[in-house]
Amino acid sequence: MFIRSLCATILVICGVLPCFGQADQAANAEKQTKKKSAVDALAEMMAPKIDQAAVERGRKLFMPACGFCHGNDARGKSGPDLVRSAVVLHDDRGDTIGVVLRKGRPERGMPAFASLTDEQIADISLFLHSRASEVSNRFGYKLGDLVTGDPHKGEVFFQSHCTSCHSPTGDLAHISGKYEASELQRRMLYPSPNMIDTWLGRPVAPPAPTKVTVHLASGETVSGVLDHMDEFNVSLHDSGGKARTLSRENATVDVQDPRSGHSALLPQYTDDDMHNLLAYLETLK
Amino acid sequence: MKAHALTLGLLLVAPALAQELTPEMLLKPATGNWPTYNGDYSGQRHSPLQQINISNVSDLTEAWRYRATGFSPGFGSIIKSTPLEVNGVLYFTMPDNIWAIDARTGKDIWHFKYPQNEGNHIGQRGVAMWGNWLYFETPDCNLVSLNAKDGKERWRRKIADVKLEYFCTMSPLVVGNHIVAGVGGDSLDNPGFLESRDPETGDTQWHWNVEPSPGEPGSETWPDNDSRSHGGGMTWMTGTYDPQLHLLYWGTGNPNPVHAGEGRKGDNQWTCSIVALNVDTGKLAWGYQVSPHDTHDWDAVQTPILFDGEFDGKPRKLIAQASRNGFFFVLDRTNGQHLLTKPFIQTNWTLGINANGQPIPNPKKEPSRNGTLVSPSSNGASNWFAPTFDPSTGLFYVVASQSYSVFYLTAEGKAEGFAGRDDFLNYPGEIKAIDYKTGEIRWSHDIGAMGPGLLSTAGGLLFTGDNANHILAMDDATGKTLWHTTVAATQANGAITYELDGKQYVVVGAGDFLYAFTLRKTN
User: What distance in Å separates residue B384's CA from the closest CA in chain A?
Assistant: First the structure.
């Protein structure tokens, strides 16, 4: 449900255009090392601050003693799932599971583990809590291998849909080295900064220069690079580098959005197109 | 002199009565008050007030502004709540905080602060009122009852278990002597439910489970008891109510595990549904599932708006929802009979519409390991931002988003929790005016991003905000902006309106500010 409020945050922190975008060529401005994806950065930040050594001790105790019935990952086998168990979730360093462990539940076939020390039970508790956190913190979820498409088909798609703006030897040269696959897939589809980047305050490359021409009611025409536009005003840097904010009342505004090709393709892609195109971009090492 | 004495008498008596909100008051159209989350039971958020109207709205000006203080900054610490206004007092919230201020002047009356707690502080959408008592849901899922006069707590009762990752954000709904309270939290595969509590004691009057019990109709839409008892379906937005039919209408959230459907094959009733419950018993009268077997987090909690109108030439009692999955639905609210399904954005996730008007999910558009491109995103074609309906135009107004996401499945082995995630590509937003009889879009108005909520009035106006810190008033017949002003932050709640001393106010929340607008000169 994080995303629901993220949306509200977006509303708060964004003007119109800064939300909308970042150019392909902006990638060139970034370091030539693979940038950690925003979701991974968030995962690190959101990772619960748990004593990992204790979690590992707990895991080593849990697996041989409990894994046969509850599963080594505690998700349940013949015995119950302990990741979403109310007893476990209410436990604090063994204060509720300790009783169950020491006495067992013979009526349900669970043996007693009378020899476990308080410290060992606390470690097992911490391991189980870490499992629950891994499930409930979706921002820690790791993506699998995304590069499954056919690069040759991807190249064919690229040649017929992308070459009016992009070149594999120009702006997209070595693109696969710059982004992790999920980040590359996202930017390939629509090159906007990930809102998580913005939310985390991580540096994002400046937006692509968007050309704008404003025909004012007075007859004057002002052209330049767009800074911001909403329903009422348009702000730009004119050809002389001067910042201007103009009212849109009775004016005509012509925006040449460099992302318009991406917007037009979004409803057209099949998932195969997307996977093939990514596979092709991944060959641009 | 006699008249004077009477006036004085009223003035003296008035403060004693001032804050009482009787259940009967909730049955009348609200003009002096905005006594519930949606203003009235219909969920229309359409006010009969017309002092401010299309001919004079250009004279709208700020009457006062109030900046909330004393809250802990955080992700959800903006005004997402719809204020209540009862007898000249406004009550509004953030997570753990309630403020009461003077609705005429914006002056402080009291501030209530709930203790620090571990619940998710994603947002708080407002209080409910019964008599002299307020009802407030906390992040750690207590229902708190407070004295509306001074903000003193009288009791708190647990609604759901925060240790299981439930959290609570909504404004409860008061019907008669029922305080109807829903819950949220879909990260650890909990079952959804709705409860009615006694307004005096907080005791449970009834408890309705989103997942049917074994043997009940709908239980066959789950493969087994394990999936059914961990099936999700949160009830996190305020519903609507028909006093004649005595039915409560509620939207339910997505099933769990959220993005993995493999372990819960079937339709998964009554998740992602509009349900009608008897308000006294909590018994299901009918249910209509708008997203069978959802795998995209598309809660169907958007306000199900009630109105009476013609459909196919016959007068009908209707219920309509512009749902997060991108489809607009119209049903007969007496029995749940389907009347209309029409997309309000361009979606790409269905194989078509079945005979009962339900979208048929395309299995190929479920989240996958290497990514599935889907419209809308998990944030939806719409979300919690309040829609509105104007009976005079016959238009249903909604905040819509032609969004796209790449949905990934990440679960290895048994899926739990979200079991996947999606990567947002774009965040567009516009107001759309939908003709309820046909589902056609009459007009659209770009507001730059999804949100905030809407208010329509008999003055022919639609109030909302854009994502560049403007508050807008539009002609609700055309979508043309007639007035706007700049505020300190982006509006995040839905506007309300009320009339006091012959003066109509429009109140909106922007960041931690509340703004009130009135006409420069009241004619």
Answer: 8
The pairing of beta strand B247-251 with beta strand B455-457: unpaired
* Percent of chain B with pLDDT strictly greater than 90: 92
The identity of residue A46, as a single letter, is M
**Do the chains contact at A4 and B383, CB–CB below 8 Å?**
yes
Task: Report the C-alpha gap between A127 and A93 in whole angstroms.
Answer: 10
Q: Is B297 a catalytic residue?
A: yes
Give the closest-approach CA distance of B433 to chain A in angstroms: 18
Which chain B residue has its CA at the smallest distance from A12's CA? B490
Judge: A1–B185 Cβ closer than 8 Å, yes or no: yes
Q: Is the CB of residue A188 less than 8 Å from the CB of residue A278?
A: yes
Chain A within 8 Å of B484 (Cβ-Cβ)?
yes
CATH numbers and ranges of domains, chain A: 16-46+143-207+261-281 (no CATH), 52-136 (1.10.760.10), 211-256 (2.30.30)
Characterise A95 by phi-psi region: left (phi > 0), alpha (psi -120 to 50), beta (else).
alpha
**Residue A273: its H or E element:** helix A271-281
Give the C-alpha separation, B241 to B249, whole Å.
6
Q: Which of B186, B242, B294, B297 is catalytic?
A: B297
Residues of A in contact with B187 (CB under 8 A): 1, 135-138
Nearest to A177 by CA among A31, A76, A53: A31
How distant, in Å, are the alpha carbons of A155, A265, A281, B256, B488 from that of A168?
Answer: 10, 19, 8, 42, 45
**3 state SS of A94:** coil
pLDDT greater than 60 at residue B70:
yes
Closest CA to B307 of B237, B382, B394, B245: B394
B residues 125-184 near A, CB within 8 Å? 161, 163-165, 167, 184
Taking 3-state DSSP, the helix, strand and coil percentages for chain B, each rounded to the nearest 5, stand at 10, 40, 50
List, in order, residues 6 or more apart from B73 with CB less than 8 Å away.
Answer: none
Q: Which amino acid is at B359?
A: P
Residue B512, chain A, CB below 8 Å: the answer is: no
Report the DSSP pairing between strands B455-457 and B46-47. Answer: parallel
Tell me the pLDDT tens digit for each residue of B439-490: 999 999 999 999 899 999 999 999 999 999 999 999 999 999 999 999 999 9
Of B230, B89, B450, nearest in space to A5 by CA: B450
Cα–chain-centroid distance for residue B516?
21
Helix (H) or strand (E) holding A279: helix A271-281
As a whole number of angstroms, the distance between CA A194 and CA B421 comes to 14
Rounded distance, CA B241 to CA B175, Å?
8
pLDDT of B412 reads 87
Of B501 and A43, the structure prediction assigns the larger pLDDT to B501
Residues in contact with B496: Cβ distance below 8 Å, sequence separation at least 6, in sequence order: B34, B39, B82, B83, B85, B455, B506, B507
CB contact under 8 A, B187 and A135: yes
Shortest Cα distance from A2 to chain B (angstroms)? 7
Q: Is B421 on the interface with A (CB under 8 A)?
A: yes
Which sign does the torsion angle of CA A101, A102, A108, A111 carry?
positive
Condensed to tens digits (0 to 9), the pLDDT of residues A116-167 reads 999 999 999 999 999 999 999 888 898 888 999 999 999 999 999 999 999 9
- Residues 50-69 of chain B whose Cβ lies under 8 A from any Cβ of chain A: none
Contact of B373 with chain A, judged by CB distance below 8 Å, is answered with yes
ipTM of predicted assembly, 2 dp? 0.91
Would you state the torsion angle of the CA atoms of residues A263, A268, A272, A273, taken in this order, to the nearest 10 degrees? -60
Verify whether the Cβ–Cβ distance A185 to B371 is below 8 Å: yes
Q: Do A146 and B420 touch (CB under 8 A)?
A: no
H or E stretch including A261?
helix A260-265
